[in-house]
Design a protein that fits this description.
With about 120 residues, the chain is mainly β. It is about 0% helix and about 55% strand. It has no helices and 11 strands. The strands form 2 sheets. Strands 2, 4, 5, 6, 9, 10 and 11 form a 7-stranded mixed β-sheet that branches. A 4-stranded antiparallel β-sheet has the order 1-3-8-7, with no helix packed on it. The relative contact order is 0.33.
Length: about 120
């Protein structure tokens, strides 16, 4: 069984920084893309950033230049370095991974449980 566990959320002042981590564990043959999403109260879940197994990245316009997604394939972990944080970045941040549990399995999507980020003075 595959699990994604996020960590690193918390309360930060506007202009501050946070680093989120998401570690995948369990039966994992290969991980393709990994991504971070945000969901603010009353809003739909939205894509923040994606990184492929080869390291190619895509960012939402709202975070370009402020957030950096990276991954450590040896640890099956994806990171989100967030800087110049704004109150509107306040949300629950979710990790998502597209992976194969075994060589014979089809690719599936897995989600983490989410971690709260609050930007407030």
């Amino acid at each position: 069984q595959v699990q994604l566990v996020e960590s690193g959320g918390g309360l930060v002042q506007p202009g501050g920084s946070l680093r989120l981590s998401c570690a995948a564990s369990g039966s994992i043959f290969s991980i393709n893309a990994m991504a971070w999403y945000i969901q603010a109260p009353g809003n739909q879940r939205e894509l923040v950033a994606t990184i492929t197994s080869g390291g190619s990245t895509i960012y939402a316009d709202s975070v370009k230049g402020r957030f950096t997604i990276s991954r450590d394939n040896t640890k099956n972990t994806v990171y989100l370095q967030m800087s110049s944080l704004k109150p509107e970045d306040t949300a629950v941040y979710y990790c998502r991974a597209w992976l194969q549990a075994t060589a014979q399995a089809m690719g599936q999507t897995y989600w983490g449980q989410g971690t709260q980020v609050t930007v407030s003075s």
